[in-house]
Design goal:
The chain is mainly α. It contains four helices and no strands. The longest helix is centred in the last third of the chain and has 33 residues. The relative contact order is 0.13.
């Protein structure tokens, strides 16, 4: 697998690494958000989960959904942030 990744063109490797970094940041943000929801017991969420027989299944489903959602948001944020660098006006105002 590592050899196949090394065979990719440098722009493809850079793009995949860029997307993976934003994916990981989004997943970590989703996990952090989920922990905050449970810690502060928002809408009695932790109370309901802790009294359930299937608490592990509920937690896995909750954190999987949060990781998927926030990971996608992180990747989208990274992609849209690329246009901002390109769209900033040049510092020497050569286009005037």
């Amino acid at each position: 697998m590592k050899r196949e990744f090394q065979k990719l063109h440098w722009t493809a490797r850079t793009t995949l690494i860029f997307l993976f970094q934003h994916l990981v940041a989004g997943i970590l943000g989703g996990i952090f958000f989920g922990v905050l929801l449970l810690y502060f017991d928002v809408s009695n969420l932790w109370t309901m989960i802790s009294s359930s027989q299937d608490r592990w299944l509920v937690l896995i489903m909750m954190f999987t959904g949060l990781a998927l959602t926030f990971g996608s948001i992180g990747m989208g944020w990274g992609i849209f942030s690329l246009a901002q660098e390109r769209d900033d006006p040049p510092s020497n105002h050569t286009y005037y």
